[in-house]
Every structure is written in C-alpha cells, then in structure tokens.
Amino acid sequence: MIVIAVLSIPFILYFVRTPDYGAMGRGDVAEIYGRKLTQLEIDRNARLGNLAQALGMSDLWRTLSLNQPGNAGYGEFAIKLIILRHEADRLGLRPSGSEVADVVRKLPAFQSESGFDMNKFSEFVRNGLGPMGLGEDHIEQLARQRRARRKFSARLRQILRERRSISLQRF
After folding, report:
1. Count of domains forming the chain
2. How far apart are the C-alpha atoms of 78 and 129, rounded to whole Å?
3. I need a surface site. Which of 2, 43, 130, 145 has the fewest CB within 10 A?
C-alpha cells in the first residue's frame, strides 16, 4: 500500500497541473486588424455602450449597435467601437479638446433649462459612473468617439459627392 502511494506521488505531481484561475476568462475571443481581442475588452466597450445610452448619445448608440435589442446590441456596439477607433486613427480624425468639451456640454444628461448644468455633471460622475465601473475619462472617450464618427460621416459624404460629380462628368 505504501509502495503504491509512493509511486503515485510523482505521477500526480507530473500530470496534474494547477489551472491559472487568473487567466480564465481573459482568453482571446476574436481578432481584428491583426490584433487579438479579449473578452475583458469587449465587456469594457459594452459598458461604454450602456454609458452612451445613459448620457443620451442615442445617435452613437444606434449607429454602432445597429439598433439591435438586448445583449446583441451591446456586443455589436463593442466591436463597432473598436472599428471606429481604428478607422478614425487611420484617417487622422482626432477631435480637439475644445470639440470634446463642446460635445460633453451638449449631452442631454447634463442639461437644465439654462443649458449645461455642472451640478448634474458632478452628480452623474459621483453616482452614475461608479456602479458601472467607469470614470470621468470614459465620458471623454465617448465624446471623442461621437465627434470622430461625425467627422468620419462628413468625410464619407464629401467623398461620395466628389465621386458622383466625377461620374456625372464622365457620362
């Protein structure tokens, strides 16, 4: 009996590995633009979708979520946000600090009868962002993405108008 126990100890030590519990759930789930996406990154972007809705950025939500209901909308938003960031960087569409500040000042969640209400902003930062695991910088990120999306749309409309005029001239 003791011989069997002694012989089984090296077997157990060699073949039984302790799993890395910290790495579980962080695995790569997709690849886009040559980089791997983790579930944590997708979840973080999905929380930004929730924040966009809470801030009244319905145009950004509808565009990036393809207006899908429930979890499908959050997943779509998360992936499309990554695409928007990549394409905006590639095209050099970087909103200035004043443009971002204008977007934040015009958000419906921070408006009162007289316009931008700093008290509403402060209250939202204190009470609304913490439970979502987000900070004030996430509002700025969404404002940048909203402005970049608008610049991207304007650039695309300009290109399409130019292409159309070229086509009309040729025919």
Report:
1. 1
2. 18
3. 2
C-alpha count within 13 angstroms, C-beta hemisphere, residue 143: 21
Range of the domain at 101: 26-154
Cα–Cα nearest to 111, from 62, 59, 56:
56
Can you tell me the distance from the alpha carbon of 48 to that of 65, in angstroms, rounded to the nearest whole number? 12
Instruction: Evaluate whether residue 11 is within a structural domain.
Output: no
pLDDT per residue rounded down to tens, the chain (171 residues)? 676 766 666 656 666 665 555 555 557 788 888 888 898 899 999 999 999 999 999 999 999 998 888 888 998 999 999 999 999 999 898 899 999 999 999 999 999 999 999 999 999 999 989 888 899 999 999 999 999 999 988 988 998 888 887 777 776
pTM (2 d.p.): 0.75
The verdict on residue 62 lying in a domain is yes
Cα four-point dihedral sign 61, 67, 69, 74:
negative
Return the structure tokens found at 40.
């944590």
Tell me whether residue 112 is in a domain.
Answer: yes
